[in-house]
């Protein structure tokens, strides 16, 4: 049996080598690189800009609010490592007009050179039961979270392919790996990013351009605080089963994975498990990564079933509690 298992493992590794040239990409050098961060005026986006700036990059911040942009610029500039670094601010809604997005990207490239790394971090979240959410909410979230990533990526990808170098980062969410109560609008928009990223990676990999999809957990940001204001009880209780991460921690991991050209970027043990469970036909950066996913799949699926059972139990308890409250109100 041991010999059979060993032979199967060797055959699998050889098969992987034949199917695809899984050679890890050369790390992207950030000193002097031009990094564009959308949604860069606060939260994870701002922390990613700071992390890149600490490593010597030139930064273009893109967001809607000019005042927040200027405030973020001052904060980022405190972390410079040389006097040549620049932080450029551009105010635009990346989800509304592609031609406008394309123009501001051109302006940024004229001032700071070709974009070496694009981080699509602009996004928003609204939670609520499917039947309670306005149809406009679904349209708005798809526009901001999905098209708000499509437009900037479309504006930089041709130049990256011509130069044979580049990184495109999409900040999704753990809600883009599994659907949860209250996230019918939000999860849909974040799942869409995964499909975009997988297809785009297959197109640009021959040009030495690499795509990274980040799946951060709940993170202590202004956007998360705003999201909590509309969360149904069930969603809040499910979210409380895991801890809230610091944006600085999330940003460091995303930048690290983007530099290395890793397709998937996750945080913590839960994030690692989710990424392995949902890898499907996603690209891998190394043979080791592929083997880890194969070996851990069964165990992680077993653990996931317990999580899903726990989440279903929370939903049932909330439903029973609501029904009990309604009964008391009727008899009062």
From TrEMBL:
Pfam families: adh_short. It is found in: Endoplasmic reticulum. Residues 1-25 form the signal peptide. Keywords: Endoplasmic reticulum, Lipid metabolism, NADP, Nucleotide-binding, Oxidoreductase, Signal, Sphingolipid metabolism. The gene is KDSR. Its EC number is 1.1.1.102. The keyword Oxidoreductase applies. This is 3-dehydrosphinganine reductase. InterPro entries: KDSR-like, NAD(P)-bd_dom_sf, Sc_DH/Rdtase_CS, SDR_fam. It is an enzyme of class 1 (oxidoreductase). Belongs to the short-chain dehydrogenases/reductases (SDR) family. The lineage of its organism: Eukaryota, Metazoa, Chordata, Craniata, Vertebrata. Pathway: Lipid metabolism; sphingolipid metabolism; Sphingolipid metabolism.
């Amino acid at each position: 049996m041991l010999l059979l298992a060993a032979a199967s493992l060797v055959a699998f590794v050889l098969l992987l080598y034949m199917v695809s040239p899984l050679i890890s990409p050369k790390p992207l050098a950030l000193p002097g690189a031009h990094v564009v961060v959308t949604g860069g005026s606060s939260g994870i986006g701002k922390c990613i800009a700071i992390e890149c700036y600490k490593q010597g990059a030139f930064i273009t911040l893109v967001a809607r609010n000019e005042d927040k942009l200027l405030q973020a610029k001052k904060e980022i500039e405190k972390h410079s490592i040389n006097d040549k670094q620049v932080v450029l601010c551009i105010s635009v809604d990346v989800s509304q007009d592609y031609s406008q997005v394309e123009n501001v990207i051109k302006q940024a490239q004229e001032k700071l050179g070709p974009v070496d790394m694009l981080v699509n971090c602009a996004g928003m979240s609204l939670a609520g039961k499917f039947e309670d959410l306005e149809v406009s909410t679904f349209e708005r979230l798809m526009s901001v979270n999905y098209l708000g990533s499509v437009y900037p990526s479309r504006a930089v990808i041709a130049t990256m392919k011509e130069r044979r170098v580049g990184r495109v980062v999409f900040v999704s969410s753990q809600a883009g790996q599994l659907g949860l109560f209250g996230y019918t609008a939000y999860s849909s928009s974040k799942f869409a990013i995964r499909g975009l990223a997988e297809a785009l990676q297959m197109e640009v990999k021959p040009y030495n351009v690499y795509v990274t999809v980040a799946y951060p957990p709940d993170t202590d940001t202004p956007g998360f605080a705003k999201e909590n204001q509309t969360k149904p009880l069930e969603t809040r209780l499910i979210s409380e089963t895991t801890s809230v991460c610091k944006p600085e921690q999330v940003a460091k991991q995303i930048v690290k994975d983007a530099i290395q050209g890793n397709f998937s970027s996750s945080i913590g043990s839960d994030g690692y498990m989710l990424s392995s469970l949902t890898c499907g036909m996603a690209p891998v950066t190394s043979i080791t990564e592929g083997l880890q996913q194969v070996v851990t799949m069964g165990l992680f699926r077993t653990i996931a079933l317990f999580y899903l059972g726990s989440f279903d139990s929370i939903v049932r308890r909330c439903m029973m509690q609501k029904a009990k409250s309604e009964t008391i109100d009727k008899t009062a």
